[in-house]
Amino acid sequence: MKALHFGAGNIGRGFIGKTLSESGFEVIFADLNQDIVNAINNNKEYSVKTVSCNRYKITNIKNITAINVNDLDIFKKISSVDLITTAVGVNALNNLANIIAKGIILKVQNESVIPLNIIACENKIKASSFLKKEVLKILPIRYHNYLSECVGFIDCSIDTIIPLVNYNKCDLFVIAEEFKEWIVNIHQFKGTIPKIIDMQFSDNLNLFIERKLFTLNTGHAIAAYLGLIKKYRTIQEAIKDPKIRIIVQSAMQESGAILIKRYNLNQNDHLDYIKKIFFRFENSILSDCLERIARNPIQKLGKEERLIKPILDSIQYKLPYSHLSKGAAAALHYCNPNDLESIKISSLIKKIGIKKTLIKICSASLNEEGIYSIISSYNTIVKELKEIESYNFI
């Protein structure tokens, strides 16, 4: 069995590639960075250090190769593999759709009827279904029946923390946490379902997608944006701050109230889930840079994303969301000269004001109460930062 994985970053190497290799797949990494492609092809292996609170394990991942995404041979790879996975970031899926569409055309031209399954492992609700729609926009209509019959797009929820251990793109070594979760929609596969270690099958995937997005991702992002205002560097530093901790925990409880109501979850079980996430955040071995977590704030402020969707749903269910609003406000305040999205937000606020920027960025039907709640928190941040150098706005 062969698998082509797009994105040879930390998640790609530390979780997806590792899992597929251990499941017996020949793994081909596809990436834009030629240095990392060369490193994989030269070394033919890399190491993953899997850690928990009091132990670790080193695993050598072998039987791997790599190809540059822009290499024309990528279409041959797509037409010949059994499985495609991605960990490229949501914003790259549109470009990836064009590449996959051309590979599918070649697969048809080769008269291959071997099923191909594609799993987009991204922080987006139903990322694979989104990718399928983008592929169908590009793929000529005469190929649509083939795609429907032979190509599966499998939605999933993926959960693990893999911090950035260094900035050397040629160093393939990765640190990964022991906890990992890969849950897929069992009904979307074509042909025989591949045997992948620890992959869980579900017929109620929305629950797991939203549980992860509204809890882990929401809490992670809020801790990062609040922590950066106080000039912390890592998630551990931020979460140790008692005021930030209370806001993050309360925000996760607010988003949790939505899940409890929507999916009839047991409240105590979900509170235990939140506690486990805090335990993961606190693991110093998995120290993660706040700037990495905070990057691409426009994406994170999207109407279907981790900061705004819980607020919209709280409004729908008439539930409180004041702490979620503080997280969204902190994201709007975030300004990093190395992050183009944060620069765009700052420029918009200066040009059209916070209210119009909020509505434009979020593309959401926030009611006046929701808008006021976020803007009020934002103005408090600005006011406190002007008044006190100690950044005690929270």
TrEMBL record:
One of its GO terms (molecular function) is mannitol-1-phosphate 5-dehydrogenase activity. NAD(+) binds at A3, L4, H5, F6, G7, A8, G9, N10, I11, G12, R13, G14. The keyword Ribosomal protein does not apply. The lineage of its organism: Bacteria, Pseudomonadati, Pseudomonadota, Gammaproteobacteria, Enterobacterales. GO terms for cellular component: cytosol. Residues 205-385 form the Mannitol dehydrogenase C-terminal domain. Residues 1-196 form the Mannitol dehydrogenase N-terminal domain. Its EC number is 1.1.1.17. GO terms for biological process: mannitol catabolic process. This is Mannitol-1-phosphate 5-dehydrogenase. It is an enzyme of class 1 (oxidoreductase). It catalyses: D-mannitol 1-phosphate + NAD(+) = beta-D-fructose 6-phosphate + NADH + H(+). InterPro entries: 6-PGluconate_DH-like_C_sf, 6PGD_dom2, Mannitol_1_phos_5_DH, Mannitol_DH, Mannitol_DH_C, Mannitol_DH_N, NAD(P)-bd_dom_sf. It comes from Buchnera aphidicola. The gene is mtlD. Belongs to the mannitol dehydrogenase family. Keywords: NAD, Oxidoreductase. It comes from the Bacteria. Pfam families: Mannitol_dh, Mannitol_dh_C.
